[in-house]
Give the backbone structure.
Amino acid sequence: MKSRKRIKLLAAAGFAALLAIPLPTRASSHMDAPLITLDPAANSTDVYAFVSQRAGKKYLTTAVALYPFEEPGIGPNKYNFDDNVLYQINVATGGDVAKGRATVSYQFQFKTTFKTVNTIAPSFIGVINAVDDGGQNLTQRYSVTKITSDGKKLVKTKLFSDVLVPPNNQGLVTPLYNQGNSGENLAKEGVSDPAALDPYTKATVYTSQLGYQVFAGQRDDGFYADVQSVFDLDPTFSGPNKPFDSQGGFNVHTIVLSIPVSELGGDQQIAGVWATTSRPAVTVLRADGPPLNSSPIWIQVGRQGNPLFCELVISQKDKDKYNRQTPARDDTSFKQYALAPELAAIVGAPPNLQTNRTDLAGIFIPDLIKVDLSTGPARLAGGSNPGAAPDDAGFSRLGIFGGDTLTSAIQPGFGGGAVPGGWPNGRRFGDDVVDIALIAILSDLRVSPPVIFTGSNNLDRVTANDIGYNKVFPYAATPLNGRNHGHH
């Protein structure tokens, strides 16, 4: 009998020692806590949540981006979802929002297969003309399971089974991602019509009979900001090499799920969204095949809610603790950081804005992206590059600070039901979350009327993504071409 080895993965300390993937050396967002940076396939970079509309019906569109800093020009191209990670998007409704407790969760599990292992080219063995054709050696499929509770036990409902992940954008072998269907050209800009999506993406958008829509695959990293300057302790974001988009030119892997609002109990409510990643508590390895886990016990190793919270608000000593805990414990564990954020002093906020920030605590505690489902659909970003779909009329990367608001039917907001058109009321692809956060920190939203910062609304000087977003599902932009891309 061949020997078997048991390896216990302790979420707090042990699992990282098993990983041997080199890390990017750039200072950045996406490196929120020490341990999770050692596990890129389980490291979530951003969560998105916004109200959308399709065929006259309202949806809560959610997304989680994973695997930071995927260099497009790499070989062999082995950035993939991990079969041994449980990816999960969580939604709280009703009283569960304030409690930081999931009302419903959606689990994503992946399975990887190869057409041949007798090659040095694990991902591509020819030009891919259609998803999973003979040129695509590495293929990933996945299932989506809805998890609820009937009060006594968990109820599991399979929403999608064995659906496909498109290939990564290598270049010559994936020409249909790129302008002119040529692997020598830049990736295609985002579109406004589902029919205009590139063939790989279009073929891997799936819709269930209940109306759920799902996509999982490589995408451009849609987060743009000069985060480097924050950790260079440069509050002016200045210098001869500025502005600098720390995420420009990199891809991520992204899961996008549109949930019919009717499945969540209707739109007269606020929902909360966050994502988690988990690994098996015990992995049984064998010499001749994959792990032998049949029914693993999952241990949470990563968490993501609002942008920047773990990275720029929570202190170093508690960052790993954040990734292990649920939002239900945020009030006792992390509220002090939101009430007195160190970042306020770094960016030069006056003393009265450095303490008792109940307005910021209202955003971050518990750390869910709160979305008012009663509004109309969010305005969407396109792009400014040639050939990109234009922004929706009225869209502002600064959300409410740029005059982009929606009207709520369930709360007064800032008067007359006016609520932010983007983060912190949900989060859209294209929201300039760093500038929004800095303006909020430098403003006093505790008083009525609020005192809004009147300085520059372009604080980090990075104002757009490097490629235009799609304005149709899956919204995230085309993955950048490994043969033709830049970093900036």
Observations:
- Residues 117 and 137 are 9 Å apart (CA to CA).
